[in-house]
Amino acid sequence: MALSQKGTRIEGPETCGGQQRARATRSPRRASVWSSTDDSWRFCVDYRALNALTVKDAFPIPVVDELLDELHGARFFSKLDLRSGYHQVRMRPGDVHKTAFRTHEGLYEFLVMPFGLCNAPATFQSLMNDVLRPFLRRFVLVFFDDILIYSATWADYLRHLRVVLSLLRQHQLFVKRAKCAFGVSSVSYLGHVISTAGVAMDPAKVQAIHDWPVPRSARAVRGFLGLAGYYRKFVHNYGSRYKSEHLHPAGLLLPLPVPLGVWMDIGLDFVEALPRVRGKSVILTVVDRFSKYCHFIPLAHPYSAESVAQAFFTDIVRLHGVPQSMVSDRDPIFTSTFWRELMRLMGAKLHLTMAFHPQSDGQSEAANR
């Protein structure tokens, strides 16, 4: 532990705004200290063992995009940030011993809700919703300890600000003045810049994405995509742009083998949803790949493998004989067990095309058009 941290570690857990927030205990726990954005130190205890035994609180956390949708028409904003928000929530006396942790000076336990408990976010969000519930999404938004007051006129703004500050004072919730902004027309909130012009990306966050080191592992790639994906709604065709840069290049186009005679190799396709004429609303298109000659066979809808096979025998086999090969799409009719068995008895081979594959029944598709 750095020498500069030791003093903070002794002083930090004991008091907060003149109120005791930790006391000595005998239950051993290991603690870690993390730096805050203003270079102060914040306690964070490893509570993974405790969290594994905790029944999770299912209180819903607000969706950032849904919160930002409420700001339409607002012109004046105030942002409030609570000072060590979790530490303003008292622990239930019967649960204090569960928060015990260890420092270089001895053992302590929290009297206030510490960081690291799995239910701390839900508990704190529930508290803030209860405090500001009458005015939520009317002129105030709350996302954990970040409070945003928004108003359309200056008079409304002053009234809204008094209401919110009065509620915070009533419930003894304290803000950190250095992180607050009052009566501004543009403010940074939840990673976005909010102004009268609307919601935009925060330049500082964009620069952080730009300066992010090149990922060297699968885990690093997932981390970067999660970071960049936060702004995906601001990037047109975000998913397509990402995929287009990482797909394997297409290989050489492979054409179908050249037919050697008429009605030896054919292609089939269906045209559906046509106007019903004499009880028929489907056309079975059969194309000879050598001569390009087509047969258009009307069928009733719904059709079955048996009815298609009967029409094929009547209009194709009777006139041209049994083909050697047949190209068709992956229609359920042709992939059925019955049709495969029928092809085996006829001595013909059924080739199924793949989606987005150049070796397909293109001639029958062109004939349909």
From TrEMBL:
CDD domains according to UniProt: RT_LTR
Alphabetical keyword list: Endonuclease, Hydrolase, Nuclease, Nucleotidyltransferase, Protease, RNA-directed DNA polymerase, Transferase
Domain Integrase catalytic span(s) in chain numbering: 255-369
GO BP of this protein: DNA integration; proteolysis
Gene3D superfamilies hit by this protein: 3.30.70.270, Ribonuclease H-like superfamily/Ribonuclease H
Domain Reverse transcriptase: residue ranges: 1-194
One Pfam family, short name: rve
Ranges where the record places region Disordered: 1-31
GO MF annotation list: endonuclease activity; nucleic acid binding; peptidase activity; RNA-directed DNA polymerase activity
PANTHER family: PROTEIN CBG26694 (PTHR37984), PROTEIN NYNRIN-LIKE (PTHR37984:SF5)
Identification of the protein by name: Integrase catalytic domain-containing protein
Species, as recorded: Oryza meyeriana var. granulata
Lineage: Eukaryota, Viridiplantae, Streptophyta, Embryophyta, Tracheophyta
